[in-house]
């Protein structure tokens, strides 16, 4: 029997089209792992897109939030924008139980590709944070703890874009054999501009990886989460 699902991301209010197109491509990548499903996509930033896609969903269809925290947007804005649609909102990407294991393998592969020993390296998680509430930082720190359990020999630190400790502060004095992994679902202005700028100010000599949610393997992980709801 055919199933349907909706993947939702924040998007970029100042330029909504590129993230919307990226998310549509991501939805297609997820669908390749679920050939009998229809996978819809919409960002909060694209006018009327979420309302249109939600209205087309059958009852109890799963909605997967491509967010790293379960804060204001997932807990308040998303349900309101769904306009009472009878759907099942799943835990956001940042709380997916498979994410720490996936990220741990990603980090191992990145270190191996550079010829860096895990025990002699460092990892900096660059996360969003928020001056308005604790949810974003709590999510990043919970992920750090889960990732540390997977990589016990790798020192891990966290820096934030919008609250202390800021990325620049966290990156300062880190050794060259350090990876910086943005704890973000999509590649918006924070990942393209704010994080690289903060790393430059800190004279960071390590390597900056793509945002966690943009790695190709994430599509398979999201597909599995949707399949588990069937």
TrEMBL record:
One of its GO terms (molecular function) is lyase activity. The keyword RNA-binding does not apply. Keywords: Lyase, Metal-binding. InterPro entries: CbiX-like. This is Cobalamin biosynthesis protein CbiX.
